[in-house]
Every structure is written in C-alpha cells, then in structure tokens.
Write a structure and sequence with these properties.
It is built from 11 helices and no strands. By secondary structure, the chain is an all-alpha fold. Helix 7 packs across helix 8.
Length: 228
C-alpha cells in the first residue's frame, strides 16, 4: 500500500466536520437519491480528483436534472463534507465494534487500534481526496477536531483499564491525546502491517503494561477478527 507525502494527516481527515452546508429537512427529498449522489461523487472524486469533478458530471451520471442536486446539497463542498462525515462514522463504528467486547482493556485497545489501522487502508483513496481539497487552515482545523474526537473513546477505554488495574497512567485524557499524536505521525508508513506490532508494543509500554503481559498479548492482536 503506497502512501504519499503527508498521508499521515489523512488518517484524521473526516473527523470533526460539521454539516452546516448540507441541505436538511426539505420535504420531498429521497434518501436513495442522496445516497446515489454520494456514491457517484465518491467514485468520481477518487478517479478524477475533487477539482476536476463538476456538479454537472455527477448530475449527468445520476440521470437527474441539475436542480435536483440542490435539493440535497448546497454545493460541491457540502457533498464532500457528507463524505467526510461518512468516514467519521466508519471510524467510530470500527472502534466501537472492535472494543465493545468483554475482553480485558488492553486486548480491546489492541483490537481497536488494529481495526482503525485496517480502516485507514480501506479509506485511503478517499482520504487523499480530502487532503487535496482542503486549504492549509481548514486542514489544521480538521486535524485538531479529529484528534479530539478520536481521543474521547480512547480516553474512556484507558480509564477503564486504569480502574481494572490493566493500565498505569495518571491522566487518561492526556495519555489518549499523546497516543493519538503518535499515531498521527506513524500513518505515512508504507507498510502498516509490518510496523503495527512495534507500534502496539510502544502504546502498551506507554500505558504501563508489564513486558510479560505485552509479550503474551501480541499474538492476540486482531484475534477477534480472525475468529469471525
């Protein structure tokens, strides 16, 4: 999997996006048409680039009148923001499913990180579109918001681990923010599967997990996926 320069920032691109530019609550809108617009836009943005994809080309492929588009989206940027929101939902869903088990907190943490790792690979082409379409100021805003959003469930899991005696940290929220910052810098790595075990070990050490427990845990990384 090839990752371009700056792609590490892409991991958090889709987070913290508001929907102020999406047209909501209008009567007569068809959820299937909205889904179709998003499906076409996603494919065209990835294939042709955000700047080279016109609303007219999306509308033409959808087989509807130009005015129909504006019943669902104010402009092309609003369409892109909805795609960002979809990526956010995908990340949150992956994390919730991976960590929503009765396994120990450190095992759930590894499962969650493993899930996010894989989701980043699946979303990479669209994430590249987000990166290319964003201005420098917008990019930084998205990154800050993304870190905050991802740190929230991570901090909750770390706090649960502290309560259970699995992790040893003084401030789970601070630890979560630091770990997110570390992951943010690792995602440009071209071979994510190769580096994941080492990253997982660093994360566990940072949370105070004993060396023997880390050695015992590593074969369990992604075990819940393999069992499905």
């Amino acid at each position: 999997m090839s990752v371009g320069v700056g792609a590490g920032r892409g991991f958090l691109y889709g987070w913290g996006v508001n929907d102020s530019q999406s047209v909501k609550g209008k009567r007569g809108v068809d959820p299937e048409k909205r889904r179709r617009f998003l499906e076409i836009a996603r494919r065209r943005f990835v294939a042709d680039g955000y700047n080279r994809t016109s609303i007219s080309s999306i509308v033409r492929e959808a087989g509807v009148a130009q005015g129909t588009f504006y019943l669902y989206f104010k402009n092309k940027e609003a369409l892109l923001n909805d795609l960002r929101r979809q990526v956010l939902a995908d990340y949150l869903d992956v994390w919730a499913r991976a960590t929503g088990t009765d396994r120990a907190a450190d095992e759930r943490l590894l499962d969650g990180l493993h899930g996010l790792w894989g989701e980043y690979g699946r979303q990479q082409s669209l994430i590249s579109v987000f990166r290319q379409a964003a201005t420098g100021e917008e990019t930084e805003r998205q990154l800050r918001a993304g870190r905050r959003r991802l740190a929230q469930p991570l901090a909750a899991l770390i706090a649960a681990g502290v309560s259970d005696g699995v992790f040893v940290v003084d401030e789970p929220e601070t630890a979560a923010r630091m770990l997110i910052a570390m992951l943010y810098g690792i995602f440009p790595e071209s071979d994510l599967d190769r580096v994941f075990p080492n990253v997982a070990r660093v994360v566990l050490r940072a949370l105070g997990t004993p060396a023997g427990r880390i050695d015992a845990l590593m074969p369990a990384v992604g075990a819940s996926d393999a069992a499905d």
